[in-house]
Design brief:
441 residues, alpha/beta, TIM Barrel, 2 domains, 8-stranded parallel beta barrel, 9% strand, globular
């Protein structure tokens, strides 16, 4: 039996079950969604082997999606702890889980994620090429990079970061660039080192058609990784980044020609005044493909608070048209995130995503704000908690500092503006009612 990819089905006029599910969840026309998938401005990452998946759409006109990174490593190999994080992330509203496991039994963890979670699951196959095998770069054949892609596809992952845009030409450009941070992409650095050790072209670039064949076979969405993304604000929007973006645009067209869904990954670290222009440039050069950004982090001076620097950049990026935000935690640059770090990073990124959805006019975004605003006006605390992005924290703050009067909080007490206005308006309404009653008599 031939399995059509989502984009192939859309081009044939077929409305898949995944499309119907996404259209209903987003509150948009299924036909509009189908057309956007056909043209490539929306993707539904949905590996045909991921039986537990609840599909999500990413792209034009849809709610901004949020991804959580996690995974095992040599220093933190606790698979159960990472599974607990993934489950908690889902409960807190994450749309996608990206497994960045780099050492240990990565395949067992990956299969657990796919087998038990309805989230969209992403991976970076390049990590397995070196991290799971004790070899020097010069001893790794090009075929091993493709084999890793096939293994991940067979395990049911829905999207893969493939750093196909870093080439020998871009390596030479990087060496002339004078960057402070050079390459900060883990996958990009591995491919750079491999090319330097072997003298060969990036296998994901030279064998790109084979990568696309594997993705088409399983309907894996290819997420074209930005190996040259800026790792500090000083390196932002330089020739290395922009030249790679041009290459990614060319690769995106080739993916669509092979009926493989594709999205583009973006920066990184970037001053806030460059964020919007970068989003618009990426959308233009990459032909409207969904744009997936890490942050961007708008300053480099806040280790321990990078969930905030990232949320600022993420809100600006998504309001300008970015479609998918990768969360950043307070532990960025410092350690593997704890469960608490994960929660803080996820909530901050969800705030950024929703703020952007308000600006983009996404269906139901303003309605959510209006509902909680009416609850605040009415001093309906239970309704406020139920509508809050993080209900547990809102309730805990209230319980930890109880006011003398239930229709106030301990900040303003009897001087609460909402309480004052409610009473003043009620008195005015009562006075007007009495006056109208007298006039009718």
């Amino acid at each position: 039996m031939t399995h059509l990819t989502q984009i192939a089905a859309a081009r044939e006029g077929i409305l898949t079950q995944e499309m119907a599910t996404v259209a209903e969840a987003e509150g948009i026309s299924a036909e509009v969604l189908r057309r956007r998938i056909a043209e490539g401005s929306v993707v539904i990452p949905a590996n045909r082997l991921h039986a537990s998946l609840k599909p999500k759409g990413i792209g034009e006109g849809l709610r901004t999606k949020v991804n959580v990174n996690l995974g095992i490593s040599r220093d933190s190999p606790d698979l159960e702890a990472e599974m607990a994080k993934a489950t908690r992330a889902m409960a807190l509203g994450a749309d996608a889980i990206m497994d960045l496991s780099c050492e240990g039994d990565t395949r067992a963890f990956r299969r657990r994620l796919v087998g038990s979670l309805p989230a969209t699951i992403g991976t970076v196959p390049a990590y397995d090429v070196l991290g799971c095998r004790e070899r020097d770069f010069a001893d790794i054949p090009a075929d091993d990079w493709l084999a890793a892609v096939e293994n991940h596809a067979q395990d049911g992952v829905d999207f893969m970061t493939i750093h196909a845009g870093i080439t020998r030409e871009s390596v030479e450009r990087l060496q002339r660039s004078g960057r402070i941070m050079s390459i900060v992409s883990r996958g990009g650095s591995l491919l750079y080192a491999w090319m330097q050790a072997t003298g060969q072209e990036n296998p994901f670039y030279s064998h790109y058609d084979e990568v696309l064949s594997l993705c088409a076979q399983y309907d894996v969405t290819i997420s074209l990784g930005d190996a040259g993304r800026p790792g500090c604000t000083s390196d932002a929007t330089d020739a290395v980044q922009v030249a790679e973006l041009i290459t990614l645009g060319e690769l995106a067209l080739r993916a669509r020609e092979r009926e493989v869904q594709v999205m583009i990954e973006g920066p990184g670290h970037m001053p806030i005044d460059q964020v919007e222009a970068n989003v618009l440039l990426a959308k233009r050069l990459c032909h409207g493909a969904p744009f997936y950004v890490l942050g961007p982090l708008v300053t480099d001076v806040a280790p321990g608070y990078d969930h905030i620097t990232s949320a600022i950049g993420g809100a600006v990026a998504a309001a300008a048209g970015a479609d998918f935000l990768c969360y950043v935690t307070p532990a960025e640059h410092l350690r593997l995130p704890t469960a608490e770090d994960m929660e803080e990073g996820l909530v901050a990124t969800r705030i950024a995503a929703h703020a952007a959805d308000l600006a983009k006019g996404i269906p139901d975004a303003q309605e959510w704000d209006d509902h909680i605003s009416r609850a605040r006006r009415d001093l309906d605390w239970e309704a406020m908690f139920a509508l809050a992005l993080d209900p547990a924290k809102a309730r805990r703050y209230r319980e930890e500092s109880r006011p003398g009067d239930e229709d106030t909080c301990t900040m303003c007490g009897r001087l609460c503006a909402v309480r004052t206005m409610n009473r003043a308006v009620a008195e005015l309404d009562s006075s007007m009612f009495n006056m109208q009653t007298k006039e009718r008599r």
